[in-house]
Amino acid sequence: MVDKILIENLSLQYADGTESLRDVSMGIRQNSVTVLFGPAGGGKSTLLRCLNRLNDLTEVKASGGRILIDGENILDLKTDVIALRRKVGMVFARPVVLPMSVRENIIYGLELAGEKRKSKLDQAMERSLRFAAIWEEVKDRLDDPATALSGGQQQRVCLARVLALQPEIVLLDEPTSGLDPISTGKVEAALLELKKEYTIILVPHSVQQAARTADHAAFFLQGELVEYDSGKKLFTSPKQKKTEDYVMGRFG
Amino acid sequence: MNRFLAQNRHAVQRLGFALITLMAVFTVLPIVGTVAFILVQGQPAISAEFITGFPHDGMRAGGILPAIIGTLYLTIGTAIFSVPLGIAAAIYLSEYAKDNQWTRLIRLAIINLAGIPSVVYGLFGLGLFVLFLKFGTSILAASLTLSIMTLPVIISTSEEALRAVPQAFRTVSISLGGTRWQTIRRIVLKEALPGILTGVILGLERAAGETAPILFTGAAFFLPRLPGSPFDATMALPYHLFVISTQVPEMPIQIQYGTALVLLVFVLTMNLIATFIRSRARAKRQW
Known about the structure:
heterodimer; A: alpha/beta; Rossmann fold; 4-stranded antiparallel sheet; globular; B: mainly alpha; MetI-like fold; two-stranded antiparallel sheet; 12 helices; 2 strands
């Protein structure tokens, strides 16, 4: 297995003075689910937002290090950020469907990329909705406003919207934090399907979800990567005391 | 006293509620009163001839068509200049500008622009458009002057409408590989449009009712024909009302109130359209 992403000595400090990442180095495997977990303020979301350069929208004071995706440093000034974001999709904590129909939501990214052929768009839509395990539920409501769907359905539409661009990497930032257990189960099941084709990086909304889904797991505490191992090892026999305490529920 | 209050909490609350309701009613009274008064006084003057005819007998008889058409031209002229510029400025301020000294200066300028007395705009328009740029006393010069006056209203309401669009939409659009401009055009502007339109109409409505800015820049005392080009002067409802109320001796009072009524209807119709757009957009909005 090769590392799809290589993070080297990544540090980042926000303009308001909060330090978010401190000298983080890790490799992320292709076609697997890598889970970043730990208490709030640990830098997990920041790390995700570095991977698709969404942090460009925030005021960052200082940053250092490199992120190599397929060997190319995406933090380089010359990086085509638009192309990067098509390659590295992101699903957010709150399902944010755009104020348009389900169909328009799914094809939005493709249209931005200049795809006009209806057959291509329809094909991509059905494929991605199936992949996100929501096709059966929305196939008769494609032209309804996406906001009319339930929260769980909306989140899977958001996932499908990302998949429509056929990215290589999918980032998920607590994608099930607002969902009921049944919807959560559906999203998690979709993830297991997804990793056959994509590299998945997930910030779970609980330790239990981390343990359920992780092929590899990284424990973050206050901006530092404390421990990084296979999910199996990290959740059954962690090497670090802090990791063990957190996994056992002694703090956090 | 404290014990009395404690025991009669409900009575006190009812009293307070009644007072506040009364005050709200009082604020409505002047508006309803003015409209009703003008309606009653002006209604007898309204006829087909009054709306579609030219004034004659030294404006003491006949219609006010040139003033109605003039105000229409001025409103359209103002829209042509102030709407694109105002919306562009609002987009810059809301979507592109960073919060720094430069943008704070722009904002300060806009706020102060809104506070300048309208007669000062009139003098400025006279100096710049009529004399320096040699547009003469014309629809063009008057429209440009009204545009400057309207800009702050359009900019600030449009900026507010743009800012009301949830930030999350922008983040999502960017994360899906959208450029800033694609995001603005396809999401932000689309969602802010009803709010922007409301602001535009309210700004134009103010322009339509103003006298001072057009006094030196485009308004004519009396014209026997309709203006033929943007470089012609024009009659206009507010200025006409001023003229026939103060400058023409033995003016039948009916015609004055009739003119006021037409101006009021013109402005209130714009207001109504704005209200309609806003309420329809609210009902349809998905966030």
